[in-house]
């Protein structure tokens, strides 16, 4: 058991499936208490039952679409009332749609920013004053390699994750003065239902299936980083090397990788 986590209260958004669900199970395994947020109440209820049947830990569920900003303060106040103190927040809620810029309806673009960026900021804004006051806490924002290395057919999604990384990097410096840690997680493609929305044709999944990350593996890496000084988690390492190469030699990478990028 990870003693850093024992008895701590962790909020996870987007907890009803994928890496959110796996992170919840991992936190509970390590003795942490859970406040789970997602839109799909029936899946939250199922996860709560699983956690309570396997682990001796407190778990409460809160149905919420983080894009409904007016509801965020009330839900987070309920969490504080239920648990007394919040030690960690993992901003995991998010989605993507893979389309070329001229094909993406503005409502889809707006929706991605409302959840991926503004919802994340709204949730962070609710826990940050508490963490600053108590002089302790950890905020982990799930971004993406797409935020470091933009590619065709993901202009809006990449832009939203660029925004998450910019916000996270600024927040890290601000929060450090008060003992609050801030980390970014930049995974490549993960084998979850994310792609049922992002890639309706199944083309991208078919092309990258053998390189997709296991959600349990990603969740383990994220939860193991809680309450440590990890600035970023980049998965897989070879993909992050490509992101670094792109930052150093963007024209070369765009020219050489052009055909490959369009396989999305």
TrEMBL record:
GO molecular function, one term: oxidoreductase activity
Keywords for this protein: Oxidoreductase
Name the record gives this protein: SDR family oxidoreductase
InterPro entries: NAD(P)-bd_dom_sf, Sc_DH/Rdtase_CS, SDR_fam
Family of this protein: Belongs to the short-chain dehydrogenases/reductases (SDR) family.
Domain of life: Bacteria
One Pfam family hit: adh_short
Species annotation: Rossellomorea oryzaecorticis
